[in-house]
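ARCHIVE CARD
SHELF: 3
SLOT: left
DATA:
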Amino acid sequence: MLGIPVTVTVDDYLPFYAGTWSGKDLLYASVGPDKSLWMPILEKAGAKLFGSYEHLVAGRLGPAI
């Protein structure tokens, strides 16, 4: 934070809508057109850094990046 590098460790679990498991059913960020998962994982890291997904403002991760 504030220009100081911070290491955030995330696991490989991503939030899905209840009872679903396909990439298009992720609760927040979606899988990229090339089936990449970097955006959902980056969003999870931002949520962990700020405390929860609810603390992300409109899904904007500029401060986390």
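SLOT: right
DATA:
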Amino acid sequence: MTANFITLLFRLYGAYIVAFSLLAIIITSTAFRRFDRWACWALLLGNTLAFGAAMTYDRIAGAIGPFEVSEYLGIGAIYAALAVTAPFISAKESAGGTRLPA
């Protein structure tokens, strides 16, 4: 029974990862390329939820090691990218600048 539970758990977790990945790919290849503001926030929220769920699972399972540290680095890179790019986007839009060509 334990092996069946673990198998189900990892299959569901894999489906969860695929669902978030497909959503991110669709948003990135459509709205994000058009510089739609909502797409930036949707990707930020989606990545935060996906990484947060993975980090929470690792803490509950007690599986914190060198590979799990990459999750913390990943979420840090996402927020660093937001910090670097967001002020420039809002400054151009508030100054009456035009959108960049796709």
